[in-house]
Design goal:
This protein is α+β, with helices and mostly antiparallel strands. The protein folds into two domains: 79 residues, no CATH class; 236 residues, no CATH class. It is 54% helix and 8% strand. The protein has a four-stranded mixed sheet. The radius of gyration is 23 Å and the shape is globular. Keywords: Cell projection, Cilium, Flagellum. This is Flagellin lysine-N-methylase. It comes from Aeromonas caviae (Aeromonas punctata).
Length: 391
């Protein structure tokens, strides 16, 4: 089968805004240097490049791709920046001299079956703007792939789950929570009892006449698991020592400590849901593409549900991300100032800066659910509930 190159609109429209970025990628985190780049810098005839490299690149020799790590200066900025925040490497010896990390970020090219998918990572503020705020961001252009194509098979079951997840997210007549619940049912069902496609076709009448939404409303609201998830997973995010994006998540943590002070109290938790319904939902209703774009991006970018060990773990991460981002938006909206699109992009890039570089996140989520006895699919669906019946 012919290989194709898939390019989303958000990828095409992205352009680095350099020193105008509110939290640019040249400070506040770990920048890896490959072996070839390291040797080029430390022996370069430009004395500024050479001296900066010798003083600020620490050799770690973990691999040719991760031969060194740039030590940031006292303010957390890359020492190769000039006085106005521009890169001396780029300015003095050209873009081709940049390390692989600096040259490629935030771009990615990954293979899914016969598709070679271009994407961008949400830890970049400008990427968050392009993905979330453009109603057409998730439109894609498919062209023949002209590079060297290697076989990368995807099982028919995972391919079907991936495609159906996208179809469900694009479907009309369901809330976001209904759609995520339906994706969960697909992930957790036994395909031996019938194909996933047949299952969706059987549910179509229920979706069209509102029975699916009515069934979702019967899922219990479990306040204790939401209380645990919000507090535990937020503290886990903050353990990440990256400086970029930290301020927004710390702001959310401080709000959590203020609102959810002490032992479990469902009335306190419902204050967050009240903020969701009264302040966030009206804002998002005027901009329905924000939630839909994010979830479509998550499925596309992460090749859901094939990238996280098992589809069940992939679903846990999808729901945890959605639950935390929904909760953080509700906490931010509790402030007197009206919610803005800048609040949205600040939150999403900040969250993903800490989340995507946190290898412990998935493990702690899975272990925490198991240890608390809350690892069932019903518990995950309960994270989708907003307690609006009680507000």
């Amino acid at each position: 089968m012919a290989h194709t190159l898939v390019t989303p609109r958000y990828y095409t429209d992205f352009h680095c805004i350099g020193d105008q970025c509110e939290d640019n990628c040249c400070h506040g985190w770990t920048i890896s240097i490959d072996k070839k780049t390291y040797r080029h810098y430390v022996s370069h005839p430009d004395q500024l490049i050479q001296s900066t490299a010798r003083q600020h690149i620490e050799k770690v020799k973990k691999s040719d791709a991760h031969w060194g790590t740039i030590r940031m200066d006292e303010s957390g900025a890359c020492p190769f920046l000039d006085g106005v925040g521009l890169c001396n490497v780029h300015k003095k010896i050209g873009a081709e001299a940049l390390s692989h990390t600096c040259k490629s970020y935030p771009r990615q090219l990954r293979q899914f079956g016969t598709q070679h998918r271009r994407s961008l990572v949400l830890s970049c503020p400008e990427v968050s703007r392009q993905v979330l705020l453009n109603p057409d961001a998730m439109m894609v252009d498919v062209t023949p792939f002209k590079g060297q194509a290697k076989t990368s098979p995807v099982s028919s079951s995972l391919d079907t789950l991936h495609s159906l997840s996208i179809d469900v997210l694009l479907a009309d007549g369901m809330t976001i929570e209904d759609k995520l619940w339906l994706i969960g049912m697909l992930v957790h069902r036994d395909e031996g009892k019938g194909s996933h496609q047949a299952f969706i076709e059987q549910l179509a009448p229920m979706i069209n006449d509102g029975q699916l939404s009515a069934a979702f409303s019967q899922i219990p609201f479990i306040g204790k698991v939401q209380w645990w998830a919000l507090r535990t997973l937020t503290h886990l995010l903050i353990q990440n020592q990256q400086r970029r994006g930290r301020a927004t998540i710390v702001r959310c943590l401080n709000k959590i400590d203020q609102v959810l002070e002490g032992e479990f109290n469902e009335d306190k938790l419902l204050l967050i849901h009240q903020s969701w319904h009264q302040k966030v939902v009206p804002f998002l209703t005027e901009r329905p593409h924000i939630q839909q774009n994010y979830l479509l991006y998550h499925v596309y970018h992460n090749q859901f549900p094939s990238e996280s060990g098992t589809p069940q773990i992939a679903y846990q991460l999808l729901i945890a991300d959605y639950f935390l981002l929904r909760s953080y938006l509700s906490l931010i909206a509790m402030d007197e100032a009206p919610l803005t699109e800048r609040d949205i992009t600040d939150l999403f890039y900040s969250y993903h800066t800490l989340r995507q570089h946190n290898a412990k996140f998935a493990t702690v989520l899975e272990q925490g659910l198991q240890q608390s006895g809350l690892a069932s699919d019903i518990t995950l669906y309960a994270l989708l509930k907003t307690g609006h019946e009680q507000v």
